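Technical annex, item 7. During the second reporting period the consortium partners agreed on a shared format for inverse folding records so that results from different sites could be compared directly. Each record opens with the tokenized structure and is followed by the designed sequence. A conforming record, contributed by the partner at site C, is shown below for reference.
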């Protein structure tokens, strides 16, 4: 280990030299109260942040350092999330941003969103808190600017560390509130199954977001606080917040109806992101859904590989096989059918759909269309004729946002109408309308089986290397992943919320290769990857130290694999029960 004076001396000797000279700084340096470890230094000032890793290690036993005794995984994740946010905010306040060429002068850490996530930018063991951050070492052109670098290492970074890791700068109760909020949400989510619920939205929650480009809560002055209809209201005693009341959504088929701009999609979005715990002040702290809740939509143009969509689509022209359907350019209906099957294939228990992003012909064929186009000439069995079968045979619940298709009343268990952002239970009224209105449309696909076949990935179809044989995995946008020679479009993965999740998904696809043995199914492989992450942390995904990964679900990993062009499988005859 070196002293911090040696680091200062090295910097002085590098002034004006080629940027590559910064490589000589790698090593471990002792600062008062913490250690600085320079693991990786980019060779170019224009290199993106993930190419450099700087670790700050502070002793948890140090009286001046923030500490918390963690008794559970959820507490550990919340503690690390809290420290990540403090470091990110302190960096934004103290660092002067870009100074020079490329990323010169930047000090930052993976930017957290509104969810409390497991990330590897802060790692904690029994003795040490380790923060993995990025410093854009300054340059003028491609020449080292050691004076600014010295300011960053010896003035700015110590201030950031002091603000983010030292007790004296912590407001009493902030850390405890962060952890208790996460624990209460986790407790709520774990109670859903035993209560026969798929989701819970607490009274007083603020569901609307600040804007279309911001996931932060709308101001209380502008938003309508959520209030449960009386007959859907339940009360749950939480470990920290005490007794809370709210709307429980039961298992089965639930419709969210209402006029335009009355809050239907806002409610669905809260359910969509209810698989995550949210930070205090988000407005959705006590809005939870089952972990196996998956948003499904149509997305024309996505690839599909050997997927059995025959439960919804069969008898295509030109004898196209839909029990092992493949295409490089799916339609709206085939893309939605494939996404739904892919979700069920890896264990979805709740399907969320919004008519605005669904293929109309996949969702329903009305009576007039049935009269015009005979069933023999229509390969699609619409979702309305399968939704009850999904629940009765596979115990898969569905929540659908609908504003223009009343025929779904006939297959619903519950109907919630949103009126000016307030939910009203109109189940009885909707079912009465169904009774009074003769059913004209003909139910299609009666008594036909709903089978989903296992698929076995082929190892050669998942290649992370570029045309030069070098591993190439990176992401600059949440819904766009560069993997080998491919760019994977993840636009329809609406439950991805942070760029660090996308980065981790790319490496998880590569890591999954160790389990691809031409015998294991997609689900078996993904389950093993998730088990390894749960046991060893996100660092298991890469053989190099990283601070740029965040947790993802098995569903997003499966969906990413399925959207990799060139991905190939062998279909197994075994049917998924």
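Designed sequence (site C submission):
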């Amino acid at each position: 280990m070196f002293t911090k004076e040696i680091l200062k001396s090295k910097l002085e000797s590098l002034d004006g030299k080629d940027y590559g000279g910064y490589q000589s700084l790698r090593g471990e340096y002792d600062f008062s109260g913490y250690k600085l470890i320079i693991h990786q230094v980019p060779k170019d000032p224009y290199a993106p942040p993930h190419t450099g890793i700087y670790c700050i290690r502070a002793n948890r036993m140090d009286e001046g350092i923030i500490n918390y005794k963690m008794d559970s995984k959820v507490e550990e994740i919340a503690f690390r999330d809290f420290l990540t946010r403090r470091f990110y905010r302190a960096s934004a306040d103290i660092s002067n941003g870009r100074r020079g060429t490329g990323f010169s002068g930047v000090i930052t850490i993976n930017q957290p969103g509104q969810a409390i996530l497991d990330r590897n930018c802060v790692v904690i063991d029994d003795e040490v808190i380790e923060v993995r951050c990025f410093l854009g070492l300054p340059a003028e052109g491609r020449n080292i600017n050691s004076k600014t670098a010295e300011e960053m290492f010896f003035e700015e970074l110590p201030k950031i560390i002091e603000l983010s890791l030292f007790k004296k700068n912590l407001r009493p109760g902030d850390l405890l509130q962060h952890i208790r909020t996460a624990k209460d949400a986790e407790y709520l989510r774990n109670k859903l199954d035993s209560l026969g619920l798929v989701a819970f939205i607490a009274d007083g929650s603020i569901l609307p977001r600040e804007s279309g480009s911001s996931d932060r809560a709308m101001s209380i002055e502008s938003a309508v606080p959520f209030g449960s209809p009386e007959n859907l209201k339940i009360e749950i005693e939480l470990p920290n917040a005490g007794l809370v009341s709210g709307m429980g959504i039961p298992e089965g088929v639930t419709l969210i109806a209402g006029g335009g701009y009355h809050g239907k999609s806002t409610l669905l979005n809260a359910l969509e992101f209810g698989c995550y715990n949210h930070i205090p002040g988000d407005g959705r702290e006590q809005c939870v859904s089952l972990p196996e809740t998956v948003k499904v939509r149509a997305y024309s143009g996505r690839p599909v590989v050997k997927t059995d969509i025959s439960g919804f689509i069969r008898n295509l022209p030109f004898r196209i096989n839909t029990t092992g359907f493949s295409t490089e350019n799916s339609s709206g209906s085939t893309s939605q059918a494939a996404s739904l099957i892919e979700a069920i294939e890896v264990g979805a228990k709740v399907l969320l759909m919004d008519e605005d992003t669904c293929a109309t012909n996949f969702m329903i064929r009305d009576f007039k269309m049935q009269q015009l186009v005979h069933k023999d000439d229509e390969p699609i069995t619409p979702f309305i004729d399968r939704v009850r079968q999904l629940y009765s045979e596979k115990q898969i619940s569905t929540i659908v946002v609908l504003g223009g298709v009343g025929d779904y009343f006939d297959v619903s268990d519950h109907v919630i109408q949103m009126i000016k952002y307030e939910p009203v239970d109109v189940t009885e009224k909707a079912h009465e309308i169904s009774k009074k209105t003769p059913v004209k449309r003909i139910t299609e696909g009666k008594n036909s089986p709903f089978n989903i076949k296992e698929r076995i990935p082929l190892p050669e179809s998942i290649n992370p290397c570029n045309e030069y044989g070098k591993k190439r995995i990176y992401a600059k946008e949440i819904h766009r992943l560069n993997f080998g020679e491919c760019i994977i479009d993840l636009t329809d993965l609406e439950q991805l919320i942070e760029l660090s999740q996308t980065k981790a998904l790319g490496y998880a696809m590569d890591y999954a290769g160790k389990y691809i043995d031409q015998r294991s199914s997609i689900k078996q492989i993904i389950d093993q990857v998730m088990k390894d992450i749960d046991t060893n942390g996100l660092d298991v995904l890469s053989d190099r130290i990283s601070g740029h990964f965040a947790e993802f679900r098995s569903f997003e990993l499966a969906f990413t694999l399925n959207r990799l062009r060139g991905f190939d499988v062998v279909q197994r005859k075994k049917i998924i029960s």
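The chain has 13 helices and 30 strands. The mean pLDDT is 95. All partners now use this format for quarterly exchanges.
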